[in-house]
Each structure stands twice: as C-alpha cells, then as structure tokens.
Write a structure and sequence with these properties.
4-hydroxy-tetrahydrodipicolinate reductase, 12 strands, Rossmann fold
C-alpha cells in the first residue's frame, strides 16, 4: 500500500468514525493506518473490523494518539473541539496533514489552529460535502446582489444527538452571507430568539436550529424581501457524503504546503 495515502481516524467508534473506516476500505488510493480512541474505551486493543461487527482488518484501535498519527500521512478528525486542538498539535509535530470536520469550535479555538498550520496542511470545514460548499458560494453571491431590504435567515435541522447550535454548516453559510454583504458575522448575528425580542434589526443575519429524530442535515438560506423570498436549500440524506468529502480532502492534502485550507480549496471553488 506504499502508493496509497495512509489515513488515521480519530474517534473511531463514533458514527462518523465508523463511516470513515468503512468508506476508506471502499475507496481507491487510500488505506486505514490507525484508529484512535480515548483511554479506557472498549475498542482500545481490539481489531477495528471486529469491533465494528465485521471481519478483522488488521488495524488495532489505540489510545496512543502520538504514535498513531506519526504512522499516518493524514488524520481525519470529527471529534470535539478540545480533542481536535490536541490532535492538531500532534499533527504539526509529526508533519502530518489534518482534515478537520469537528464543529462547535469557538473563534479562539480556531485561532489556536494557526500555529499548527505553520507546520502542516490543515483542511477545516463545517461541512465536507460538495453540495454544501456550492451552496456557500451561491449564498455569498446572492447576498452580494441583494441589499438589506432582504432579511437573511439560516435555518438548519439535525438529529437529536447533535450538541452544538447553530451547526458548523449554518455558521459557514452565515459567514458567506456576511462576506457577500461586506460585514462581519459577529456584528450582525441574531440567534436564540425567545420571548419579546422586539422587531428584527435591519441587516441582521438570523439563525434558527431544529433538533429531532435522525435528521442527517438540512440547511436553508432564506432571503426574505418585500413581496418575495429566495430560498437556497441543501438536504443531506446520508452521512456518506461527509465521509467521501473528508477522504477527498485527505487525498488532496498530499504534497500541499503547510497552511490553512478549506473545502473550497479542495474542490477548486475558491475565487
């Protein structure tokens, strides 16, 4: 497998971790090098294939993240913000690329990734799907074309296990809308409305979050103007789209200089 990209998967036992492991096995040009789990997890020391209820695949789950990362060419990481920062530091130390699909990171945590990006290639995106990244581009362009007579609302829906809101994708879309209007999202963000909130402030970008059932991911960007509405929509029906996007990003990082990238770079959609 010397001519294929060796991938380490963090949070291997999670829904995205297992999806990534299965998709890597089915994708040409990549192979699973290591599977990382937290200390004390039942998977540690087990063959990952067997832990997933299938045939052995020869990869033993480990809690030694430093060793597992050093053995790979790229790490794919859909975990939690604090863990992602630790993995990023290890990637920088080993010179291993880091593909980050973790959501819920604060601006301060994202800024902490900058030091790691000086030593390795980092691709970070709130959503890895092709469709969502096209939607980001469309959102930016529509926002630039319309004035503040059009209120912008980002409406997102996810499964009831999701712990952060608005979703990382919703924030990507909000950032795109803000960029289109030439403003900073933090200055115009309006979310978590409840009670007597008063009239909507002109120029604000609103967020609404729905949580329920097994919804994979639904995102609408609504531009509501006098007498008309424009709605841009993306529906994800299978997490496989995120796994495929992350693996595409992992392959793309090979040979890339250290730096901070996103899926628009991977997909060649950046202006």
């Amino acid at each position: 497998m010397a001519d294929t990209t060796g991938i380490a998967v963090t949070g291997a036992s999670g829904r995205m971790g297992q999806m990534l492991i299965r998709t890597i096995a089915e994708t040409d040009g990549v192979h699973l090098v290591s599977a990382i789990e937290r200390t004390g997890h039942d998977w540690v020391g087990q063959d990952v294939g067997q832990a997933m209820g299938g045939q052995p695949n020869g990869v033993i789950a480990t809690d030694d993240a430093a060793k597992a990362i050093a053995a790979a060419q790229v790490v794919i990481d859909f975990t939690a913000p604090e863990a992602t920062l630790e993995f990023s530091a290890l990637c920088a130390k080993a010179g291993v690329a880091h593909v980050i699909g973790t959501t819920g990171m604060t601006d301060a945590q994202i800024a902490e990734l900058e030091s790691a990006a000086q030593k390795c290639a980092i691709v970070r995106a709130g959503n890895m799907s092709l469709g969502v990244n096209l939607l980001v581009q469309l959102t930016r362009r529509v926002a630039a074309a319309l004035d503040e007579d059009f209120d912008i609302e980002v409406i997102e829906a996810h499964h009831h296990h999701k712990v952060d809101a608005p979703s990382g994708t919703a924030l990507m879309l909000g950032e795109a809308a803000a960029e289109g209007r030439g403003v900073t999202l933090n200055d115009v963000r309006d979310s978590g409305r409840d009670g007597i909130t008063g009239a909507r402030k002109r120029g604000d970008i609103g967020f609404s979050a729905i949580r329920g059932g097994d919804i994979v991911g639904e995102h609408d960007v609504m531009f509501a103007g006098p007498g008309e509405r424009i709605v841009l929509r993306h529906l994800a029906t299978d997490r496989l789209v995120f796994a495929r996007g992350a693996i595409r990003a992992a392959k793309w990082t090979q040979g890339k200089a250290a730096g901070a990238y996103d899926m628009l770079d991977v997909l060649g959609l950046n202006d």
